[in-house]
Amino acid sequence: MGRGWLRLAVALAVVVVLAAPAVPAQATPGNRAWVATYNGMLSEGDVATSVAVSPDGTRAYVTGMTDTIAHVYSAVALTIAYDSASGAELWRASIDDVYPGVDPQAAAAPDGHLVFVAVQTGAAVIKAYDAQTGAEVWSAQYDGGPKAGHGALLGSLAVSPGSDRVFFTGTGHPQWAPGNCCDYLTAGFDAATGARLWAQHYNGAGGARDVATSIAVSPSGRAVYITGYCDQNYPMWSKNEDMVTFAYRASDGKTLWMRQYSEAGHGSYQEGHDLVVGPGGGHLYVVGDTIARHSIGADFVVLAYSAGTGRELWVQHYSGGDDWSCCIVADQARVYVSGQGEGPYGYQQEVVAFDARTGAQLWTHTKNHVVGWCDHGRGLYPNGCMSEWTAGSVIYVVGTWGYPPDLWRSDTQDIVVDAYDGATGKVLWSDSFDPSVGQDDYAFDVAVSPDGDRLFVVGYSELSQDPSHDYYEPDWITIAYDTT
To answer: Which CATH architecture group holds 99-438?
Structure first.
């Protein structure tokens, strides 16, 4: 069917806001202020994957996937702007013919004028929307150029603090050669026009699989940092991987420094999953996983670098069993990592705090039967996602609770949200969200407003029953919490 039908399908879909009463009680931390759901026309495969908040905190921009045709080869990426106070829909925009295997991402410009959405088609596509109206301002795509003859795969999106540039990193797929699966690919665009300013490729020393997973911009806007992992020998997937981190000059993409982290032993691997620049801009923190040769499980590994020179400041491991990291955030005093490990009762969520200056482990909190979703360049990865309100040193972690013995086959999965005191690790409040009793509920992303007053969690809940089958289909869901 034609694209006009696709746009009509999105327009006719149902959005429901389950708001607080007209005269709500005084807000308390952890109170659900409102819940908004979206059910596409076919009631199939509606999943919210990313959320960004306007700099003044008045709007939440949620993007995700909605199925409008009954096959698995394409979908529609939908973005909805919500009023942060009430959950009322303000505008919506859609992108047709999106590859459903890569999650759409959203980022808000710090000056409040634009919202950027990145999706995967045959290339990596970035669209800029007017933040007030949702009107499309520009559209840009990058297929990786001549060095990536099979296209560019989106990994991560970031906007400069000055709102003048937008960056993405991911994976470029070169013309096939033995052992050469993919390369790091990073590009910068003019935020006002969408013109591409520069692009960088990196093919690791092994000439095999090189996957960039995360990107961050310095507080000054002068540098862009990426991390990921590189296979060091052929054949690919030989599990001889190193964590490789780059710093590029934001204006033209010039390499400022590159660091490769490897631990002893052929057959070991170290993968970079996420990174964050410290609040002062002087330190860069990278988290990933490491498995030594002949080891039966992974550990978190956290590295601190001088952001200006790339000098390694400290390295710290966390081993609670078989541990897989996901996200990292930092304040002036501490670095926080979330992920997943094996506990006494199966899977458990793990949150670990480190001293930002020395790397010393400060506290650890685990929660049984909780996992989450995190995308590290090769599909959804079972960990947890995290956000932070730096001024108050409050850490928010979301995940999915399921009951053993088989978490992934359980019909009792709920979205769980926990707020931690960053200094002590004490749980300030917790919520378990289960609107579809007996069905699946998953969280995919979390963001907090700049003033710390509201928290947004997005994902999906199986609310719509398929009329032709005896099961439920996912509707995307946005939950707004009071935090003060």
So the answer is: 7 Propeller (2.130)
